[in-house]
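Batch manifest, entry 17 of 40.
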Amino acid sequence: MTDQTHSTKPSPEAVAARAVLLGRARWGLPEIAFWAIAFGAFFFMPTKLSLLSEIAILGLLALSIDLVLGYAGIVTLGQGAFFGIGAYAAGLAAKYGAGAAPWSDPLLGLLIAGAAAGLIGLLTSFLVLRGSDLTRLMVTLGVALIVDELVNQMKWLTGGSDGLQGVLPAPVLGVWDFDLYGKTAYLYALGVLFVLFVIARAIVKSPFGLSLQAIKGNPLRARAIGMPVNGRLVAIYTLASVYAGIAGGLAAQTTQFASPDYVAFHRSADALLMLVFGGAGHLYGGLIGSIIFRAMQDYLGNITPQYWQFWLGLTLVALVLFVRGGILGLFAKMRDRVLRKGEPA
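Output type: structure tokens
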């Protein structure tokens, strides 16, 4: 008898799959340019740093929606609730931990904000798994309305309609204070956004991310081949809640204030509009959408303070009718068309 030797050489299919995943994970020049411009804005837009900080925070909120809607197909109007939970969690940590290290540390406050929002997201995720898209939309909206009412009723903790005041986070890393010009706030918010974006990018480019897209495409087929559909939907919904909570924590820390406006319905609706502007399922869609949405809001508000919502709505209707898939969806179609023309007949 001859000894059977087991080859450790990977199969051609495994090699090809590995090459595809590595190609998907590789950073392209447009991505590098995007982040270079974002960090460079600190130097060539010094008078707009407060606005840029808000855009970075809103971009993180829109990114959280993209994770559940663009990649997992979960329609939601409840991300504003997690945003508000994170804002109040980080605000309370900064207010009652003022001068008591490490509770007033901003980074610890973000961890507390993410943990609080993630816990609520985990507990409510099982409700989201039930029913159709319309059912999920109503459930997430219901959760947001409940959180909104709790914030208004728990005046002893949240300050009610007056908001949570006295939010005084410690300097970032014990060195950089939050100044009136928004310098520290912008670099802090953008740095957190970049770190969380890199993590989200690694997740959606991984086999886990590919399985989410398979579930979005056909959940019945994904379940038939043995994929743990519910478990993965719960995981991504919880992660998106953490992201939204951290965005809320950033908002409370950089503005040193938390109000019921953070959990209002329009917070979720605005973030969803940003994603529609940029394009769902592209990861950068929420970031680009937040830039377009907030820039248009600022510009139109200065030109027509009374009717800026009309022009914003008109732009949205035109975008949905003629540019389906958002700005990045349009670019993707143009790229595919150019590639098809370049192929040999």
